[in-house]
Specification:
The protein is α/β, with parallel strands linked by helices. The chain has two domains: 71 residues, Winged helix-like DNA-binding domain superfamily/Winged helix DNA-binding domain (Arc Repressor Mutant, subunit A), CATH 1.10.10.10; 159 residues, Glucose-6-phosphate isomerase like protein, domain 1 (Rossmann fold), CATH 3.40.50. It has ten helices and seven strands.
């Protein structure tokens, strides 16, 4: 039996759900409550509370309280530090300066391309959408075989911002090689590896330091929160510079 893992929520009545929500919202107090305390808090009868206890699989209220307390403590232990994903130490000391420099490049660019694969590709879409909302011509590329060199052949003043946790993805490196000596395209990167090829290929590298996590060898579960953090800071700085430029 598990209260928080109860699977038949759809079978609970409105009265049952009122009791369930009250218990969830007062999980620290429930182990010390009586039946009538829960009934009063959920605005139901004592008998409704007992019917609920039986319905979710417990034979008595004391059995429920002991089980609930143990389950709640287990959850608290498993949730410890779950939101402490990043701190300021995850970024280099000059990250704000580099953000300002990259934003300045984006400010006058004719095309802003966010380039990434997998999870980084999803963030690239987010970044390009936000940049477009700010009034800049931006699009995302998630496919390393996308004909980007052909699309930008007759353009100038382009900025490509590559997103890559490892900074070592071969397919991305092959695409970026087409722009290394381009006078019309400036490259920057957001990566978790300052020494990586992708970081070294661009003019600027916005870097962060976070442990890389993989499962089953190929699946990357490394947090993308630092990347999103940098993206939001970059877009905010871009917006601020745009506003400052338009001021008389």
């Amino acid at each position: 039996m598990a209260f928080f893992g109860f699977k038949d929520i759809d079978k609970l009545s409105e009265v049952d759900m009122a009791i369930y929500r009250f218990i969830v919202d007062h999980d620290e107090q429930v182990p010390f409550m009586r039946v009538r305390d829960i009934a009063k808090g959920a605005h139901v009868s004592n008998s409704s509370v007992m019917r609920f206890i039986h319905k979710i699989g417990y034979s008595s209220f004391p059995e429920f309280k002991v089980s609930f307390k143990n389950e709640s403590q287990d959850l608290m232990r498993s949730k410890s530090d779950v939101l402490k994903i990043i701190t300021r130490d995850a970024f280099p000391n000059d990250i704000e300066k580099t953000i300002k420099l990259v934003a300045h490049l984006m400010l006058d660019a004719d095309n802003i391309i966010f380039f990434g694969m997998g999870g980084s590709g999803a963030i690239a879409e987010y970044a390009s959408r936000q940049a477009s909302s700010l009034g800049f011509n931006s699009f995302a590329v998630k496919d390393p075989f996308y004909p980007l060199i052909q699309q930008l052949r007759n353009t100038s003043n382009n900025v490509i911002i590559t997103l890559s946790v490892s900074g070592k993805t071969n397919e991305i490196i092959e695409t970026l090689n087409n722009f290394v000596n381009s006078a019309d395209t400036i490259m920057a990167s957001i990566t978790g590896n300052v020494e990586s090829p992708i970081a070294r290929m661009g003019r600027y590298a916005l870097t962060y330091n976070i442990p890389e996590t993989r499962i089953h060898k190929y699946y990357d579960l490394t947090s993308q929160v630092p990347c999103v953090y940098i993206i939001d800071g970059l877009l905010m700085e871009l917006h601020n510079q745009d506003v400052d430029r338009q001021m008389p």
